[in-house]
Amino acid sequence: CEQIIQxxxxxxxxxxTAELCQRIQTSGVDINVGDLAKIANVLSFLFSTxxxxxxxxxxxxxxxxxxxxxxxxxxxxxxxxxxxxQGRAIAGSEDARSAATVGQFVDxxxxxxxxxxxxTCRSLKYPYVTVTLRVADPSGQITDKSFxxxxxxxx
Length: 155
Prior knowledge:
This protein is an alpha+beta fold. It has two domains: 97 residues, no CATH class; 50 residues, no CATH class. It is 48% helix and 21% strand. The chain is built from seven helices and three strands. A hairpin with a 5-residue loop joins strand 2 and strand 3. The chain is elongated, with a radius of gyration of 21 Å.
């Protein structure tokens, strides 16, 4: 919840669900990355909608209690606490009201390589560049996108 609030406040570029999942699993909770990403998307939607509608903590908790009967009581308590402590920052933010609909660039890595040979070609000897872009999608989940280019394409 806190990382999602930080993401909505533009203090962090996104939520690294793989790293967060590993931390949660280390603490003894059985969860996979896909389920954690779904939870992060739901919480991001919840907090951004609450911010857009300028809901107070009590209004948010009342809405959660009336609409989502399957949400555990302790989960509602955590959401209440985080919204009460940090929700005001995004509720007052104009950026939260017009949430981004495109991904945010986080990092870029590249490396130069030379393909010497392959199964079908004995002598390649052509250099190439491998680029990896790290992007946070609008929900805050960080993903890596990789591709290869020739030197002229890279230039």
